[in-house]
Design goal:
The protein has 213 residues and is an alpha+beta fold. It is 31% helix and 20% strand. A hairpin with a 5-residue loop joins β7 and β8. It has a single domain, classed as HIT family, subunit A. An eight-stranded antiparallel beta sheet has the order 1-2-3-5-4-7-8-6. The model has no long low-confidence stretch (mean pLDDT 92). Bound molecules: zinc ion (2 copies). One zinc ion binds next to α1. The site of one zinc ion has 6 residues, from α1.
């Protein structure tokens, strides 16, 4: 099968690390878990550029997978989760994306909402830069920003389930939220390409294999 993109190619090659499959999504441990066992991705089967491109009729399915993952992480690691998406590139704005194929990060024990709040304000180092944070339910806001096509966004959900979409009209570094989590935990190995940490990925598989259904 031909691969849609870099993430698609990894999925094709590593089907055996998929822990669960629904009609439109896979759940698999991430490559480059930064020392965090249980770090998962929910990945769209189709090559959508991000949440903003996922059809509305798949929102319920995705919410169901998040709820399932939250429960399984709680049962197996006794931890709450941080959820985020590094948004896609829109009109030349790079939304801090690691890969332009829709995927949500599910990270046990992380919470960098405060750090992001502080960091964003410092990024307004030029006139006319802005960000806008909306506290939302669902994923509709990502589609709105995507359709407007003039800015980018990322999504972050706190462990207490507050979901926020952040629209930005400026450059956000690659793997932005991963870098924040790494900084908080004094980890240097945030770049998944340089530090795939397959031993930890395998531990996640060993622990969670067969727990999704
Ligand atoms: Zn793809
Ligand atoms: Zn990502």
């Amino acid at each position: 099968m031909e691969s849609c993109c870099e993430l698609g190619a990894i999925l094709n090659k590593e089907k055996d690390r998929v822990l669960f499959e629904s009609d439109n999504f896979f759940i698999a441990p991430t490559i480059g878990p930064m020392g965090i066992e249980g770090y998962l991705l929910i990945i769209s089967k189709k090559c959508y550029s991000g949440l903003g491109q996922i059809p509305e009729n798949q929102y319920n399915e995705l919410e169901g997978l998040i709820t399932m993952a939250r429960g399984i992480i709680k049962d197996n690691y006794n931890q709450d989760i941080q959820i985020f998406e590094h948004g896609p590139r829109v009109c030349g704005f790079k939304g801090g994306s690691c890969l332009d194929h829709a995927h949500l990060h599910i990270v046990p024990g992380a919470n960098v909402v405060d750090e992001i709040a502080v960091d964003l304000m410092y990024r307004l180092d030029d006139k006319n830069l802005f960000y806008r944070v909306d506290r939302v339910e669902g994923f509709q806001r990502s589609a709105e920003i995507k359709q407007k096509g003039i800015s980018s966004y990322f999504m972050v959900e706190a462990p207490d389930k507050r979901r926020m979409f952040v629209e930005v009209n400026f450059f956000i570094p690659s793997q932005y939220i991963r870098q924040m989590i790494a900084m908080q935990n004094s980890i240097n190995e945030w770049d998944w390409k340089k530090f795939p940490q397959r031993n930890i990925l395998q531990k996640t598989i060993d622990k969670l294999q067969g727990k999704f259904s």
